[in-house]
């Protein structure tokens, strides 16, 4: 994951605060939720392609882990 410097600085400043503002927490939750949704989408696109190459042990392992991750993400986002 690549974050711009201003975003890293903002996160560090947020960590220094002892009193989190409700809006900041909501923004963080929305960001994480969007990242999870994007990851879920990316994996759902990749898994059918990877499954074509099941003979390859690396692809098989990635496919199994990807499937487990999609199931976990589905539980979190629902």
How are the SSEs ordered, and which strands pair?
Elements: H1 5-16, H2 22-51, H3 57-77
Give your account of this protein's structure.
This protein is mostly helical. It has a domain at 27-78. Helix content is 81%, strand content 0%. The protein is built from three helices and no strands. The protein has helices spanning 5-16, 22-51, 57-77. Helix 2 (22-51) packs antiparallel against helix 3 (57-77). The radius of gyration is 17 Å and the shape is elongated. The two termini are 23 Å apart. The model has no long low-confidence stretch (mean pLDDT 76).
Count of DSSP E strands? Answer: 0
Rg calc: 17 Å
Q: Quick one: overall form? A: elongated
Number of helices: 3
SS strand fraction: under 5%
Share in helix: over 70%
Short description, anyone?
This protein has 78 residues and is mainly α. The protein is 81% helix and 0% strand. It has helices at residues 5-16, 22-51, 57-77.
List the defining traits of the structure above.
mainly alpha
């Amino acid at each position: 994951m690549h974050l711009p410097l201003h975003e890293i600085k903002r996160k560090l400043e947020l960590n220094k605060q002892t009193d989190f503002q409700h809006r900041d927490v909501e923004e963080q939750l929305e960001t994480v939720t969007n990242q999870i949704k994007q990851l879920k989408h990316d994996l759902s696109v990749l898994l059918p392609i990877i499954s074509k190459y099941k003979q390859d042990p690396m692809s098989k392992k990635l496919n199994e882990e990807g499937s487990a991750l999609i199931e976990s993400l589905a539980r979190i986002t629902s």
